[in-house]
Every structure is written in structure tokens, then in C-alpha cells.
Amino acid sequence: xxxxxxxxxxxxxxxxxxxxxxxxxxxxxxxxxxxxxxxxxxxxxxxxxxxxxxxxxxxxxxxxxxxxxxxxxxxxxxxxxxxxxxxxxxxxxxxxxxxxxxxxxxxxxxxxxxxxxxxxxxxxxxxxxxxxxxxxxxxxxxxxxxxxxxxxxxxxxxxxxxxxxxxxxxxxxxxxxxxxxxxxxxxxxxxxxxxxxxxxxxxxxxxxxxxxxxxxxxxxxxxxxxxxx
Length: 229
Prior knowledge:
- Helices cover 62% and strands 3% of the residues.
- It is built from 10 helices and 4 strands; from the N terminus they run αββαααααααββαα.
């Protein structure tokens, strides 16, 4: 049953080996995914051919490294919003996604500024609203299909060189030309530098993953409950 969520052994072992990591390969590690990884290793330990952990649960850390704490603006924000031992659930996943969105906003602003200076150009996409990614995550809750379609086009723009005119016509034809709240011109997302579009794609894909993992996890729980009855 655990294979529903964990589709490859690489990610399974990465999730198991890195208990405090929020994202792996640009995808959010959801609470449901972590629970399924834990269940997998518990079930495997009782089998005739158990799957071994790649790293020990408790690793030795030299004393001199334990004292090396790094504090900054983002560290302070993180510690104020997320308790170390809090119960992890779908609400935690969404709060983490919103926190990552805020972080990505800052990265994208820096990226836009760098590209504009390097090529001596004026990027209109740099004038997105202040909280545009956090607003986008909130906007997606009521416009899921719309945001999923924009994600498909974003991924396509990363794989192929698509002229802006063609993208603009496509967005107009599919009524995707306006997005977010407050309203933004969707084409601005496609005018962002490539790495910025990757960040946005990762964010939207992680939002889909939260929905998917939660649904599958609940389905697995129901199946287990029925099998035990």
C-alpha cells in the first residue's frame, strides 16, 4: 500500500534519511508522504527481506559542529512560525508551502534584478504584486483547474522556446490571461527568467502533491481499516 505515495526507492530513502528537509528535488515532502515512508519501513522490518535504512536514525555529530548555529532573518521567521516538535498534518504542509512561497518571492526579485542589470533590460515581470506567490497559493484554492493549466504551460515554456505572442494568444483563448488576487496579467509569469519559472512551477506542483498525497493517504487508511474489521 505504501507504494501509492512513494513511487521510487530513491525518494523513499531520501525522505527517510532527511527527516527535517521540506523539499526534495523541488517537490514538497508532505506529512502524508513521511507517514507512508515510516509505515513502509515498519512493515518492511517485519518481512523476510527487510529494506535497510541508508542512514542510521541517530547520527553522531561532533561537539564542535553542534555549536555552529546560523541565525538570520529567515531563521528567525522559520523558528517563530514552526515549532520543532509540532504535529505534522496537511495544515503544516500548507503553512510550509506558504513560507516557501514567501522565500521564493525574494529569490525571484533578486533574480529579476540580476538579469535586468546583466542584459541592461527592463523586465515588466519584476512589477508583480508584493505577495504574488502567496496570493497565488491562496488563489489556487478556489481556482485549482485554472492554476493547473497555467502550470502545464509554464512547464511547456521550460521545455520549449514558445514565442510570447503565441503564449499571449493561448492565454486569451483559454481565458487564462488574468490570474491571482489582486489580478495579475498571467503573461508576466512567462516573462520571468527561466530559474524563476522553475520556482513557480515547483510551488504549483507541490500544491498539487499536497492534494494528491492527502487523498491517497486517506484512501489507504480506509482500506486498512476495512481490512482490520
